[in-house]
Amino acid sequence: MANKYKIALIKGDGIGPEIVDEAVKVLDAVASVEDIEFDYNDYLMGGCAVDVFDTPLPQETINGALASDAILFGAIGGPQYDTLPKEKRPETGLLKMRKELNVFANIRPAVIFDELTAASTLKEEVVKGVNLVVVRELTGGIYFGEPRAKEENRAYNTMVYTRDEIKRIAKVAFEQALKRDKKVTSVDKANVLEVSQLWREVVEEVAKEYPEITLEHMYVDNAAMQLIRDPKQFDVILTGNIFGDILSDAASMVVGSIGLLPSASVGGKVGLYEPIHGSAPDIAGQGIANPIATIMSASMMLRDLGELKAADRIDNAIKAVLKEGYRTKDLSSFDAKEVVSTSEMGSLVAEYATK
User: Fold this and answer.
1) What fold, for 113-129+137-256?
2) 1-104+267-355 belongs to which homologous superfamily?
3) Is 164 a catalytic residue?
4) How confident is the model over 317-346, as pLDDT tens digits?
5) DSSP 84
6) From the candidates 39, 42, 82, 221, which is the catalytic residue?
7) pTM score, two decimals?
């Protein structure tokens, strides 16, 4: 009997619908050979929701997401929404969704494909073999701290973390490390920020529960430098919301393209799976967006649902397609045998995933 899953699709703005459609194509392909059934339901969030509902996150989207087994999300935003008041900005909808789902842990792997080492701006010997994951706290820190305000001549935000918030994200990072090379690098700014001093203190307490894991601390400015100088030194990077936001984007350039990095936001009842890149409105509708990060996010979703064989099919298919020399436009300069469209890339991965 087939395993059935209810999947909420939030395609969003810009290239969001294009890349989510390709991930769904691949999911349907592996479902056909692994005896899985997906029940998809579409919901609006972001600028498209503002256009229809005058809010970036309608209640029906929240309800639908919470009633699902997982959420596959594209991207939100666009220049036409940049002048809206804060409560109507697409980004406000995403932040609220994360809070509603209580997905406090954002897991962002950065793995370089052997075929794409030349795509990195760093030397091949620096990046070849990079395989790290950023574990970013997602529902606390300066993005959510109060008080906050923008006044005529000054503005301020507050960075806040509680002991419990730090403890739970640290546990996620250590559990990730158990399945990897058993090393956690906790990134903070404890030489300047009291909130980072508490962060470091709590992380050290959690580390005592994982004696087999090596823990090191690193200031965020040094971590940014080390990520470029020697990225292979990292296994699991544990950090807060704003630092993780920045460092994971830096990691995307280490591996060659932001179009290659997936993510999973977990910790609550329902996981949210999305590429780390934005909505890229400048290329929307042109059929040139790279769907691989979204397809990889779908693979992460399958792993969390327990469908390991299906996830392996997707991961192996992506490797095979890249090895064969198929590239989307963003990677066309790197050993491309054939440059393909967004839809063609999705179809290739779907085809290889069923072999």
Assistant:
1) Isopropylmalate Dehydrogenase (3.40.718)
2) Isopropylmalate Dehydrogenase (3.40.718.10)
3) no
4) 999 999 999 999 999 888 889 999 999 999
5) S
6) 221
7) 0.92
